[in-house]
Amino acid sequence: MPVEVSVGLSEAEDASLAFTAAAEEAAAGLDGSCDLCVVFAGMPHLGSEREILDIVRSRLTPDSLIGCGAGGVIGSGRELEGGSGAVVWALSAPQAEISVRALTTLPTDDGIVLGGLPDDPALYGDAMIVLADPSTFAVDTLLAHVDEARPAMPVIGGLASASGPGSASLLLDDEVVPAGAVVASLSGVEVLPCVSQGAAPIGPEMTVTAAEGNLITELASKPALERLREVIGDLDEREQGLAAHGLLLGVVIDENQPSYERGDFLVRPIAGVDPGSGALAVPDRVRVGQTVRLHVRDASSASDDLREALATRRLALGDAGAAGTLVFSCNGRGRHMFGEEGHDASALEEALGAPAAGFFAAGEIGPVGGRNFLHGFTATMAVFPRD
Fold this sequence. Notes:
The protein is of the alpha+beta class. The chain has helices at 15-28, 49-60, 139-149, 224-233, 237-244, 299-317, 334-338, 343-352, and strands at residues 4-10, 36-42, 65-70, 72-75, 78-81, 86-92, 97-108, 111-115, 127-132, 155-159, 170-172, 175-177, 181-187, 192-196, 200-212, 215-219, 222-223, 248-252, 265-269, 272-274, 279-281, 291-296, 322-330, 356-361, 364-368, 371-375, 379-385.
């Protein structure tokens, strides 16, 4: 049987009315049973989580359910930034094996301990959807563990961007989870990751010739800051204007390629500069021999990057196309970045023509170069092929 996805959205202020409407709309779009339901609740609805769960479960009877609080929601080709958005995303994939669970991370003297995953990595599934509370869950710990235990397995999701008093507002089946993360592990159904980092490369590629930890001290055998100034000086007027509003550094993840395109770089902010030593600080560890390239971000480059990423994914889908998509867009995007409402939702609808839903996240999770990362100002997507 083909995979089906259906989406319901409501902006009613009353939680009961909103989720009744959203759940009934999602249920009406499914011919088969609901095997996984994902719920996103705007801030005004938090405090009514148990009522929301009862309503959604009674209308859709999902085998599995996860959800979280959202500062803004995406669904049915629309974006509701803030306010009382209610979204229900429903998947019918009878051939799939889906399991949901809560995860925890706990700081100890020996580091951060990850709890809740099965002992056997084969039980992680072939893809994982993660919704996490940013204040109580160390996402990087989970991603590092999965990358080691299940190389190339995509992890896609976002950090909850709204919470109720004393609650992370995470949802799992018929429970409200107070902290940590909730995840859905999927096997037997294809999940294709799509990541748009919203940045455009500028200037030449450069090799890191000296580095220590997260400090780049030399680029192409010159002090990093000196090389940086040279590159900026050679940019055209438009690119220099973009660079003046904030430079980013793209680091190639997979060096085993003859050339590097836009999506081959993990884009990170330049966290600091030491004028004395000429070193650049970035959020992640770097090593000698890595290839880097400067990037900039503006509305135009972010829009181009998203549409290019979606076009590549659409081509890979072939004639069958997409059944639907889960999307996790940074809460710094939307009107704030594009100056218009519904940019990401419209791009998704135009490119894939399939039901899509998600939320504006406080951090987005998705793979670049075969490894999973936590991003910012990014749109990450889990695309479900129809067949």
